[in-house]
Amino acid sequence: MILAWPGKRLGRLLLIPALASFALLVEYALAPAVFVIDAVVALVAVVDYLTLIGAGRFSAARRHATVGSLEQPLEIQILLVNLGRSTRRATVRDDAPETFHAVPAIFEIEAPPRREATLEYVAHPTRRGTYVLERVDLLVSSRLGLWRRPTRVPVSTTIKIYPDIRQIARYTMLARRDRETALGVRRTRRLGVDNEFERLRDYVDGDDMRRVDWRATARRKKLTSRAYQQNQSQHVLFLIDCGRLMAGDTGDGLTPLDHALNAMLLLAHVALARGDRVGLLAYSDRVRAFVAPASGARRIGRLVHAVHNLFPELVEPRLDRAFLELEHRCRKRSLVVLLTSALDELDVRNTGDYLQNLSGRHLPVGVFLRDHSFFAMADPPRGKGIALYQSAAAASILNDRERAMARLRGRGVFTLDVFPEQLTARLVNRYLEIKAKHLL
């Protein structure tokens, strides 16, 4: 028994005996003619059904890049071969997820026997992650098109969709043209020089005369040179919250976590360009990913790979586990950038306690993302009634939140309180300020 679905043509064909049966209401003597019509239609349908034998004999292959980028077009080819002995008409759809936005999504083809048909479409991925495309679905039509046989051709391939790193390429291009301000990144004058003064020492043959300290020479009555030391690379470690507050929609189709990852990647690029070592620790109720601080041209690729399949979980984040892991994994003094979201004073205070404990061993920066809907609720309403009370309650919560933020800054913890879409430029600017002042 061949599994097949009736097509639209079969429905139209069945209208003939259906309409002919109305003639029996006028003249019953036409019954033999109606029965003949019924028999002919049934015979045609059965014969056409039998043409579906062997219709499922197809093979397929898929060609595409193994790695794609968010919102960037990804070209995918399907190589479909009809293994049967007759030409087959079919409707073809690839096993692409809804988040791929395939254009075109469906193909109507006529596949000659023993011939290869190439189908091409462009996917626009709208979500990060690892996707496995396992099959190609076909609806093969019978010879007259009265029936359609569903067929699945197994062909498994994997595509990894990484965060959009176009901003890194754009930053690099603008930096070469000395136009970083187009991205909101301010130019920061670095205090001091790359070779920092270390000590005074006796002059030895071969020393550069420009490094002779003449005041010290006059005081000591002996040629004295200034010794310098090279600035060593410093550690930058990102702590990224993947808990419940980092879920939701920020209004542009991205979650707060997406904005945090985009900002992290650009700042990592900037830090690596300045010789720093960059690492990552992502957590929710457990440690989700860890990348040890390191430098090198391939470090961005390692970070992108670590976060491409990272999504927020609807759980309460366990800061204690994250900071214990940080203490265990990172002993050297580092710039620790915590990217999280905070709705109220309690969130800020709980996070601030952990950040304050880092002061001394590390240089902590707490980045708190704002919630647009909550801040909009605090705006004075035009009407009265319950909206007025909601606005007053939201304003009170935000005032308490700001006071907690001010106390945290007073304890020596750097903070950023920004909306998600403003995060990238503000975070890069804060890093450049810290580097310029040699705080790390």
General description of the model:
The chain has 3 domains: 1-162, Immunoglobulins (Immunoglobulin-like); 166-173 and 178-188 and 232-436, 3-Layer(aba) Sandwich (Rossmann fold); 195-230, no CATH class. 34% of the residues lie in helices and 29% in strands. It contains 11 helices and 17 strands. Strand 13 (277-283) and strand 14 (287-294) form a beta hairpin. It starts with a strand and ends with a helix. The model has no long low-confidence stretch (mean pLDDT 87).
Major beta-sheet overview:
6 strands, mixed
> Can you give the helix content as a percent range?
25-40%
Number of domains: 3
CATH superfamily of the largest domain: von Willebrand factor, type A domain
How many helices?
11
Order of helix and strand elements from N to C terminus: EHHEEEEEEEEHEHEEHEEHHEHEHHEH
Our Rg estimate from Cα atoms comes to 34 Å
How far is the N terminus from the C terminus?
Answer: 75 Å
Global structural class: alpha/beta
Top CATH class of the largest domain: Alpha Beta
Quickly give the CATH architecture of the largest domain: 3-Layer(aba) Sandwich
Number of strands: 17
Note the overall shape: elongated
Strand residues, percent: 25-35%
Q: Averaging pLDDT over every residue, what do you get?
A: 87
Low-pLDDT segments, ≥5 res: none
CATH topology group of the largest domain: Rossmann fold
